[in-house]
Amino acid sequence: MHDGATTTHDEGKGQYFWVWGALLILTAVEVVLAYKQVFQPVRMLEALMILSVIKSALIIGYFMHLKFEIAAMKWVLMIAVVACLCLMFVFFPDALRILDLGVR
């Protein structure tokens, strides 16, 4: 949490409209990429994942106000995200192995 005496940031609506506009443009790019199939499937997934990470960073930073939080709060969130990604990389190969065996 933060108090008004130690931190200052712009509370204006303009900044949020710019972020909202960026999110809208990124979503439009994702939709166009998905419908046009510009890349090969693996590259398409990578591009869409990168755009999704950018969008989530904007949402977390501005609409959830993490940009204005103390560094400890940011570190806790980043450690949790990295832990989730590591767990995904541990369990996804096992799921692919089951699909290769024909188990449904």
Spans where pLDDT lies below 50 across 5 or more residues: none
Which secondary-structure class do the elements indicate? mainly alpha
| General form | flat
- Biggest beta sheet attributes: none
Helix content: over 70%
Strand content: under 5%
Number of strands: 0
Rounded Rg:
19 Å
Please, what is the average pLDDT? 80
Number of helices: 3
String of helices and strands: HHH
Q: What distance lies between the first and last C-alpha atoms, to the nearest angstrom?
A: 47 Å
Oligomer: single chain
Written account of the structure:
- This protein is mainly alpha-helical and 104 residues long.
- Helix content is 75%, strand content 0%.
- It is built from 3 helices and no strands.
- Helix 1 (13-36) packs antiparallel against helix 2 (41-63).
- The protein starts with 12 loop residues before the first helix and ends with a helix.
- The model has no long low-confidence stretch (mean pLDDT 80).
Topology:
Blueprint lengths: L12 H24 L4 H23 L7 H31 L3
Helix pairs in contact: 1-2
In short:
The protein has 104 residues and is mainly alpha-helical. The chain has helices spanning 13-36, 41-63, 71-101.
Which characteristics define this entry?
mainly alpha; 0% strand; single chain; 104 residues; 3 helices
